[in-house]
Amino acid sequence: MPDVLKDKFCPLDFLTSCRKRELGTSIDKYIQFALELENNNRLSFLDILVEKSTTGELITSWYKKPYSSGRILNFNYNHPPSQKLGVAQGFLNRAIRVNHESKVNESVPLVKDNVKKADKSRLIYTIHCTSGKWYVGQTKQKLKARLRQHRLDCKPENMIKTSKTALADHFSEDGHAFQFDNAEIKGTEKNFMKKNFREMIFIRALNCLNFRTDAQSLSSIYSHLIDVVKRSLE
Hints:
Blueprint: H1 14-27, E1 42-45, E2 48-52, E3 58-62, H2 81-98, H3 104-107, E4 121-128, E5 134-142, H4 143-153, H5 166-174, E6 184-188, H6 192-205, H7 220-233
Antiparallel strand pairs: 1-2, 2-3, 4-5, 4-6
């Protein structure tokens, strides 16, 4: 069947639609018309949702199926930057083109891949202690996975471990509580060396309970600059 006869949208009343279906079959048994009924004055067609207003105007908006993940392309994938931008621009243009002017603002956010805080990875984070100090850490895992490990480290049966993080060590000695649910992300970084450097900067700058060895690789130049800034803020 020629492509010109596929995927055509034609709003008709119910009786006319039934006659069209019968007409197609009477001409050739391979000619079939799909019949879909509107629901609450709305009808989807491919990636477009057509809505009939109270004035009879047909208002279109970008439609996605209920099982759609909403994800287009992860920007961290190893595709050329031009391809990533091209995909995003293509979807943005499509959203603007198919949407009625009153629906553009509702559909455009669909092209953005919002990652929840707990699902972010390759980051530097801080956890506040009731003692007033901070624990600074960095991880390539998702934040929720790293926080789960910290919680497990603070369980009594794990206190006998000889190699503990500064957080677990502080908890076992002083029994202070940590606000895991309010952990803050200080930044994200894919490069391992840069991530370590940024972690050391935060350890040196904040009132932290981290081990001294956690920031011993930081250059004395940066340490001096941080001390100067801290004194100026006192």
